[in-house]
Specification:
Blueprint: E1 5-9, H1 15-25, E2 30-34, H2 38-44, H3 56-63, E3 68-71, H4 74-80, E4 83-86, H5 106-118, E5 122-127, H6 135-146, E6 152-157, H7 167-172, E7 177-180, H8 185-198, E8 207-210, H9 212-243, H10 247-255, H11 276-289, H12 293-320, E9 329-333, H13 348-358, E10 362-366, H14 372-381, H15 386-392, E11 393-395, H16 399-403, E12 408-411, H17 423-429, E13 435-438, H18 445-450, E14 454-457
Parallel strand pairs: 1-2, 1-4, 2-3, 4-5, 5-6, 7-8, 9-10, 9-12, 10-11, 12-13, 13-14
Bound molecules: uridine-5'-diphosphate-xylopyranose (2 copies).
Amino acid sequence: MKIQSICCLGAGYVGGPTMAMIAAKCPDIQVTVADMNDKRIAAWNSDDLPVYEPGLDGVVASARGRNLHFTTDIRGAIAAADLIFVSVGTPTKSYGIGAGRAADLRYIESAARLIAEVSQGHKIIVEKSTIPVKTASAIKAIISANSSSEATFEVLSNPEFLAEGTAIADLENPDRILIGGESTPGGQEALEALVSVYAHWVPRERILTTNLWSSELSKLVANAFLAQRISSINSISALCEATGADVDEVARAIGMDSRIGPKFLKSSVGFGGSCFQKDILNLVYLCESFGLPHVSEYWRQVVHLNDWQKSRFVEKIVRTLFNTVNGKRIAILGFAFKKDTNDTRESPAIHVCRDLLREQAVLAIYDPEVEPDSIRKDLAEAGVSPELIASNVEIVADPYTAVDKAHALATLTEWDEFKHLDLARIHHLMLKPAFVFDGRAVLPTTALKAHGFDAFVIGKGG
Ligand code: UDX
Ligand code: UDX
């Protein structure tokens, strides 16, 4: 079976870039990305893409209008496709059974019902969204109960491992592509069809095929292991601060042991992003559901430590500023969950800013890519009242405005431009003593001291 037409439901951070890369690499396949959000689709069709991602513009420009299309006509896109990626959101459930841990699958379910309703002939459905193990069987059950008798379906799992900020490089040159399918002849045929799409540019030996459940579970486990490393090094960052050790030196020393390796050992104010917390909590819930409370408690601690790291950073600020930040201007540099993305989902900045606002601080927030409206929306969703946002939050267009007459400066995202700030000018603009809280260890530490700042850097004792 040769794939000629692909559609993707969900034009988000995953669906948009992934489909753009498939279209760029497979000129013989028509690729349509469908989303119910018409503003988002209009942005994908414009020069101002809704997702900020280095290199994405070029990939989209190379294929858009040729074999890459963005539309709100979801039904039409499903009807025309041989293969349908489902890349809609799977947020953590906020209500009812499993609240705060389980994945909310309502968007996946409505996508499955729509596919059943619209489809004729044979379709391959591919889970791209991260979902709990066994979702494929739920999708299959919904579809077979709702589709016309002549329609046939196969369900595959193909989790995405791209990281935001490096999505284009990750998609172009992935460590591996993971595809899970059923061992039936139909399942294997569908699996091979998707393998041949990726084989347009990914070497065969890097395309891994497994059974459905292994593929679904591997995505959760990969993110849990990555996040666990960050929580581990962050636990050590607190010990370094207490003992006079330097967490970067410790990370380098252990990272050179090839069995441990150098990556994901950068201590920070905490990890964020749409996946880590959600996927670990998902794993926690899965373990609970299968009667494994010790295992679920073990993974829950990775998230607890992350929350503690953010709270501890706020406490450090308040204690250092003579136990009160009431009415004090604090410059916040960076709001995105990491550099090179405009995504703020689960960004540690939300937690830190919320807690500082509860202490009645006045925040001057600067981020080079995040829209002011999304900062206000994130704070409101985190429980900060509209009045407090209106009176105590200023969103500014450059870092120097942020630090003007500020009591303190805190870095919450490691944007490269922060490495090159004019520290003499900043010191001059700030009130004295000029306190710096470098939550991302992004500022030049020795230069900070040389310019007379009173600086705290995460994980650095002494
Ligand atoms: C999503 C999932 O959240 C994540 O678990 C998975 O690993 C990849 O897909 P992301 O692309 O970052 O991640 O999410 P988001 O940017 O929120 O995009 C989802 C899109 O789906 C949104 O544009 C939304 O409008 C759209 N959508 C959602 C639909 O078109 N229909 C729906 O029923 C629900
Ligand atoms: C992650 C996974 O890396 C990716 O494979 C998966 O498919 C989706 O989830 P992403 O959330 O885009 O990707 O970003 P990632 O680079 O993993 O960073 C997550 C968070 O951890 C960020 O807040 C980042 O700043 C933080 N981090 C990362 C650290 O604090 N220290 C590190 O050493 C690495």
